[in-house]
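Review session, final week

We close the course with one last complete record, chosen because it touches almost every idea we covered. It is Protein kinase domain-containing protein, a protein from Gambusia affinis with 652 residues. Go through it on your own first, then we will talk.
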Amino acid sequence: MPLGHMLTFKVAYQVAAGLAYLHRKNIIFCDLKSDNILVWSLEVQDPINVKLSDYGISRQSFHEGALGVEGTPGYQAPEVRPGIVYDEKVDMFSYGMVLYELLSGRRPALGNHQLQIARKLSRGVRPVLGGLEQVQFYSLHTLMTECWDTKPEKRPVAQWCVRQMEEPSFPCLRYLLSCSSQSQLFLSQLQGCSAVFWHGDNEDRNYSVVNVEKGQVEVKRMCCPGNRISCQMKMPNSLWISTEEQEVFVYSLKDMCPLSQPQKRLSCPAVVTCLFHVPAAEQSLAKVFAGMSDGLVAVYTLVDDFPLDGEMYLCSHTLNKTVFGLKDSDSRQRPYPVQSMALLSSGSQLWFSNGPGLLVIDTSSLQAVRRLEPYKVPSSIVSLTTSFSLCGEEAVWTLDDHSNTLKLYYAASYELCGDRNPLRDVFAVQRPAGMATAAGDDINTTDQNGKLEFSNGDVTLIFSEEAGTQIIQHQDSVTDYCSLSSTCSVEPPQSNCLGATDCSALKSRCCSPLAQNLQVQQESRTTNLESAEEINPAVPELQAFNLLPVNGTVWIPRRGGDLLIIEIQSCGNQLRGRVSAVLSPPGLSSLGTLEEAALVAKDTVVCGFQQKENMEWCLVVWRAWGHQELDVFYQSWEELYRSESSSRRRRR
């Protein structure tokens, strides 16, 4: 993509929006091509990048269609012939050719003269573009092939294209890759862009490696005998593999593939369920913490990524009893498996799950520092991750497997600052104790841009000369995904005052300024609320199972296959967590169950779906968008709506 991903998307969207506007006015452009697209700006942050021009041969479309053979060979639809009636679908064919040019950087040349080109297009010949894994813009690539279909009735209309492109899943999805039958998939950021599949057992055990950056299988069915794997961890010079037979094998990666004989074989008192690498500090060597199925944690000291002889053990049961005073009869003393770990305070503390609680360990002295109680029995923490809140404090997000609740702690003070079940569109986040805050704003406020705002907790009314009056109803943007669990609440957020600094973000995610879309959105919102309230709490598809820190946001995958994106925003004197987007791949119902998800690189999130019937996998690869990219995306169509709304008012 010569223009880059975001600018390519914005140009494609703005051209589709221009066509949709013309078609609403019953005008057929008839000559859409790159030469007739004026470049207004190549800055991604600018609201307008391109405009359509040259309407010299445009035609009014009547009920029976239009006639005429004007157009440009290569962009002209095959049904444009003398005496043949056509409609606005000819513009959609040309739009498909423009998309090809955007994705490839080449003109859609199919011949040297008009008759030759027309014959090829009529026979279904199209310009050659790389596969979905090469282009890595699944939705736009698919839209291109739909638009240049030979049959006009199969092409989408411009307004449908615009609506599809306003979904965050459209620009975020890179590609889908079908994989063969495999037993297990392992993904992690330490593995980089490698997705590792394992299959078989004992002498038949083998592995395959997929490069998710290129969408290619680089290693296929390489033999590596051994028992079924419980977890694995890759480091620069070694690969750690733990098996269900309570063993850990450490392989050298200096010789690359295939994996040779293990350099180290470690026996463990229980099955290892979690491996975590702690880098070397000034006065201590690097370590690997191996959490086990009975709550034990083995600590291995490393030299060149390989363990020295003699490990140490931390017993969760003993720490809970001797340091934190829990009795043996306490239900929190059950042998909970260690399922997740996180490194905090510049590497000086390790937090790891212990059933419904968290244990905090000093990584140098290996002494217990704190026990936190985010949940109650029978919940167990399945994932935790770190991030930095807007006030600069290091924070820890936790997720449990029973109540499906997301909680947020400030690491320095161990203070619970966010607790949401169900997870609504907007939820309050407390500032750390002792942090100074400015005086609260009045409910009626006027910001620096002259916007007058009123809020009563349920709705917010904003008036400005530029955008007119806008009515924003809280909680209406992701109503059918409003809970991590299956329950849904339509209560207003805890805070009753919406700061002016958050108005733009709320508007772009909650409502469209176009008056003609309000009725459709209201009907859709009502339908979503009704369907959300009827969800069965036992539906496993709604179970969240991991937390992924992605560029200032947290991505939450659920078994059903969708991804919630959460960010913390400043709202006046308050902090708020909010669902910024919900990502869902096409054909979700046919992909199977989402089994694995991980941030494998700074800009890539990979989700692994498996079909239970045949054990086949499908990798869904996403662009790891953070809050900055999401803001640009929402503003890309928000500004166009505002411009059109302002234009209508001027004409009145």
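Two points worth writing down before the exam:
Residues 5-165 form a domain with the Transferase(Phosphotransferase); domain 1 fold (CATH 1.10.510.10).
The longest helix spans residues 627-651.
Good luck, everyone.
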